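re the bet — no i am not wrong, look at it urself. input seq straight from the record:
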Amino acid sequence: MAIVAIDADDQVLLVRQYRSPADAVLLEIPAGTLDVDPDTGQTEDPDLAARRELEEETGYRAGSWRLLTRFWTAPGFATELMHLYLATDLSPADADGHLGPDEDEHLRLERRPFAAAVAAARNGEIADAKSLVGLLWVDRERSSPAPLEPRPPAALIEKSYVLTLGELLGTSAAAMRRSRFAQIFGVVMAGLAVPPVLAGEIEVALPGIILAVAFLTGLFTVPFTLFVAWRYRDRVFQTTTVSISEAGVHWRAANADTELAWAIFSRLRESSSTLWLEFGPQTLPIPIRIFTPAELATIRRLAAEAGFGPDGRPRGRPGRGQKTKPGSGSGR
């Protein structure tokens, strides 16, 4: 998360620190990452993390907080979703309970009049992306006759669920059945079993037949899935909340908080029991049972409005096995 902190004199609190990837000392707005509890795997609430980071990096607390926006920092290769806040009504933290920076952080606090900070962003003195977005967002909001609307569209559908063991086994098997490796391996095993069967040597063919059936049906995953379900049952069978809006899909659990725009998905598939959301190499399965027929109709409408065709792929994107024209790649 990142914070544009402005005091009563309209001065912005900035921190100057060395950044090894840039090999330079950069001037930035206060920012930090969400902590993850090592015992529960739960990710820190961004609202709480922003308050902690402001105090750690500047020594100040804010009496007023507002979420400005959320944005992906580099969606082509990173999963970082930045939460940008405006903090005002600043006051020094109590000396006794003041949170300080981490041991590996060496920060120097600087104040700039807001206009000067915006000028530094425009002239290149401030070259950090989150700081540019934050300062220019607030500057644009101040000069706009109508306040900018930072929050994502309201969820049209919001459901909470806990996976059953049967659903976990079913989705794992379905994913295995769609695997190219599983399909090829299963066919090869079946082919190797044919000669012994024709020769009447069933006992020789049996291992190949069993492996072919296990891979082609997805049953090969059952023992591994059962082990994962037992070993990590607290995480596997935790309550998950899915919110679906015109902007995309947002799901939350104790150890995850992920928001994806419709454009991120490579395919949306619907089976009799599961809604499959594919993005990159990952797939998010959502049980169909949690939705009413009207809600499923809404999801299909949102997908169509987002540009997905009847096959679940974005219109104009080639299907598996089809070639793209030169220069038609996504640039990712």
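see?? Residues 2-143 form a domain with the Nucleoside Triphosphate Pyrophosphohydrolase fold (CATH 3.90.79.10). told u. also The longest strand covers residues 60-72. so pay up
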